[in-house]
């Protein structure tokens, strides 16, 4: 007897295999070619936390300290509630930062400012990665994105992993750059590279006992405040910043205060003028948050 012709309807097994293959291809394509995490801070916020926490509008002020390189001082950039939430999110994971080596987040260190020779960078502070699922952090990141605007941080670029840092008395952070000497691979995205186009350094706590711990930019000069002491003797910086005796400008930590600066020059190379340090904390505690917006490059170093 003749065999019946093969059925034109694919078997159940075949349909399942096709579906599995197509899904794997789609996932692979997404992982490799999707542009950054994009609005991850908004998306994560919306999807996980919308019913639990609403971002509050935050009226902050700005003061341009330097236009070239661009360095801006922000006041009230984070609310007390957000600052407390961010500290709570990261503090259980704080670990001694220790000595950083090449390839680590701070791979570009020069202590003598004239050579680009690698020196070991020393920080005695503690640090912890901050998960993007923290609602307070996502509110801050979305404010940071709006502050930068899409020409400096395009919608498909992101903030990588923000970091909580904490200093105890005697702790400091040597002079360093936040940008990398070489482009870094974007984990999980073959062919995608990044560098830290700018930095936000946000002070998160207030400690009436605190002394020291200023953030110092030795190569950014401001007009000498001593020419204009004013009635309070605080000079033009009004207690927010002042000239360092060895040159450059240093900023006093205060909750809500933040520094924003641009790390990369127009041609994409790191700007050596934004070298900075965390001066030794002599009393109290200092907690802050690093946010490093990433510029993406496709196709290699
Ligand atoms: O502690 C400071 O004032 C600066 C810290 C810093 O620059 C960093 O963590 O990258
Ligand atoms: Fe830094």
Q: What do these coordinates show?
A:
With 301 residues, this protein is of the alpha+beta class. It has helices spanning 12-33, 40-49, 80-91, 135-148; strands spanning 61-67, 70-75, 95-100, 121-129, 163-167, 173-176, 184-185, 192-196, 198-203, 211-212, 215-217, 241-243, 249-251, 258-262, 276-278, 281-283, 286-291, 294-298. It has four helices and 18 strands. The strands form four sheets. The chain has an eight-stranded antiparallel beta sheet, covered by helices on one side. The structure holds 2-oxoglutaric acid and fe (ii) ion. Residues 165, 173, 178, 201, 215, 276, 278, 288, 290 line the site of 2-oxoglutaric acid.
Set down the secondary structure blueprint.
Blueprint: H1 12-33, H2 40-49, E1 61-67, E2 70-75, H3 80-91, E3 95-100, E4 121-129, H4 135-148, E5 163-167, E6 173-176, E7 184-185, E8 192-196, E9 198-203, E10 211-212, E11 215-217, E12 241-243, E13 249-251, E14 258-262, E15 276-278, E16 281-283, E17 286-291, E18 294-298
Antiparallel strand pairs: 1-2, 2-14, 3-4, 4-5, 5-17, 6-15, 7-8, 8-18, 9-14, 9-17, 10-16, 11-13, 11-15, 12-13
Bound molecules: 2-oxoglutaric acid and fe (ii) ion.
Mean pLDDT: 81
Main beta sheet: 8 strands, antiparallel
What distance lies between the first and last C-alpha atoms, to the nearest angstrom?
68 Å
Helix content: 10-25%
Low-confidence stretches: 27-38, 101-119
Q: From the alpha carbons, calculate the radius of gyration and give it in angstroms.
A: 24 Å
What is the β-strand count? 18
- Give the class from helix and strand content and strand pairing: alpha+beta
Specify the CATH homologous superfamily: q2cbj1_9rhob like domain
- CATH architectural label: Sandwich
Strand content: 25-35%
Strand order of the largest sheet: 1-2-14-9-17-5-4-3
